[in-house]
């Protein structure tokens, strides 16, 4: 079968960054006891009240085709939520419901790029970012955010890369680094976007998980609302990863065209999961804080466990459910450290190199197991690194 160049080059001809995760899962299937600190999957399940709302909706008949843009009640709820959080007037015409944040990301890039257009993204990056750009025929171009600058992008780095680009993808709070972009950083990004006439795609799926500072949507900055798509999701904020409910927010004229794409791709999101999402949003900010609380607590546990040692340096995370550990003092790459840790201590972490060369010499820890085994794993990783150093 002769396949398209687009489909065969999504990973850029190399690994998609998940080799160690796959290796760890294979060891688990073979009966090994592995402590998994790899992916951003909550250790709690979706709240039973949300599942009951989903069940009730399904039994009530919400099992047929749902409206492709999403049910109006949910779109209105998302619009109200964003308007309250950002101060930007938002209506249901600005909101489309998608099959999770990843589908929203794909739709945004399909809207922003023509074949051969360049899209910038920040390195380190979530593993699907360059592949999503390639999947719509775009050309991904990484802009390095240095570890010594807290993994925050600078105006100078972005400006130097932006000539000829069409779009820029940002993510705050950030996966994998935990960086939260403050106003100064966002204003620098906005200045570059306006100077070079870039469409900004802002992945804000961790907006409820901020431990230091505040979440600011770049959409709220002067001159940015009409050039910004925002990606959101129920996955991280409400522990609904498998429900696949997300949204894309943007200017209403742009969204009318994105709707045509959604009509010709997944043709809507299941009505009963949308009803469950509507119920979940109605639980309010206190519930969202409850979902995020374990990660803030485990962040503090890790900070304490890593005090007084020199083999690992914690890149202080301001948000999200991850830690980035600088392990360069061990003399190993992130790949080699993670592989050795898995084979010798049966602890699975993600090599920093999985998220781009700017994270080389680091490993990413997902804070997604209960407190006691998490704290024990951090201490074990620190001891392992100390032995190597």
Automatic annotation (TrEMBL):
SUPFAM superfamilies in the cross-refs: PLP-dependent transferases
InterPro entries attached to this UniProt entry: Aminotransferase_I/II_large, AspAT/PAT-like, NHTrfase_class1_PyrdxlP-BS, PyrdxlP-dep_Trfase, PyrdxlP-dep_Trfase_major, PyrdxlP-dep_Trfase_small
Catalytic activities: L-aspartate + 2-oxoglutarate = oxaloacetate + L-glutamate
Entry's family note: Belongs to the class-I pyridoxal-phosphate-dependent aminotransferase family.
Annotated protein name in UniProt: Aminotransferase
EC number(s) stated in the UniProt entry for this protein: 2.6.1.-
GO annotation, biological process: amino acid metabolic process
Sample GO molecular function, one term: L-aspartate:2-oxoglutarate aminotransferase activity
Pfam families, alphabetized: Aminotran_1_2
Cofactor: pyridoxal 5'-phosphate
Keyword terms of this UniProt record: Aminotransferase, Pyridoxal phosphate, Pyruvate, Transferase
Top-level taxon in the UniProt lineage: Bacteria
All residue ranges annotated as the Aminotransferase class I/classII large domain in the record: 33-380
Source taxonomy: Bacteria, Pseudomonadati, Pseudomonadota, Alphaproteobacteria, Rhodobacterales
């Amino acid at each position: 079968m002769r396949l398209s160049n687009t489909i065969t080059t999504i990973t850029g001809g190399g690994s998609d960054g998940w080799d160690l995760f796959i290796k760890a899962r294979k060891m688990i299937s073979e009966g090994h006891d592995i402590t998994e600190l790899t992916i951003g999957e909550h250790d709690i399940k979706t709240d039973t009240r949300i599942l009951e709302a989903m069940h009730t909706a399904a039994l009530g008949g919400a099992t047929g085709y749902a409206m492709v843009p999403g049910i109006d009640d949910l779109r209105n709820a998302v619009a109200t939520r964003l308007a309250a959080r950002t101060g930007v007037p938002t209506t249901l015409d600005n909101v489309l419901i998608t099959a999770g944040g990843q589908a929203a990301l794909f739709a945004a890039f399909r809207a922003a790029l023509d074949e051969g257009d360049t899209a910038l993204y920040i390195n380190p990056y979530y593993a699907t970012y360059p592949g999503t750009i390639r999947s719509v025929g775009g050309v991904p171009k990484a802009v390095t955010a240095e570890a010594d600058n807290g993994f925050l992008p600078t105006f100078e780095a972005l400006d130097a890369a932006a000539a000829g680009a069409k779009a820029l993808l940002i993510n705050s709070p950030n996966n994998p680094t935990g960086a939260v972009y403050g106003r100064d950083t966002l204003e620098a990004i906005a200045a570059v976007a306006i100077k070079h006439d870039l469409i900004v795609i802002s992945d804000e799926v961790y907006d409820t998980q901020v431990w230091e500072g505040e979440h600011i949507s770049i959409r709220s900055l002067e001159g940015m609302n009409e050039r910004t798509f925002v990606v959101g999701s129920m996955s991280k904020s409400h522990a609904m990863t498998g429900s696949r409910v997300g949204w894309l927010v943007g200017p209403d004229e742009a969204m009318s065209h994105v709707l045509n794409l959604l009509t010709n791709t997944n043709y809507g999101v299941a009505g009963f999961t949308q009803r469950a999402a509507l119920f979940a949003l109605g639980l309010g900010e206190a519930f969202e804080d409850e979902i995020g609380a374990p990660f803030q607590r485990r962040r503090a546990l890790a900070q304490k466990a890593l005090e007084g040692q020199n083999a690992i340096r914690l890149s202080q995370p301001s948000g999200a459910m991850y830690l980035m550990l600088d392990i360069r003092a061990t003399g190993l790459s992130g790949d080699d450290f993670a592989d050795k840790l898995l084979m010798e201590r049966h602890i699975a972490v993600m090599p920093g190199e999985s998220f781009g060369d700017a994270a080389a010499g680091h490993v990413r820890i997902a804070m997604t197991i209960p407190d006691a085994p998490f704290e024990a794993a951090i201490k074990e990783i620190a001891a392992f690194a100390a032995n190597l150093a």
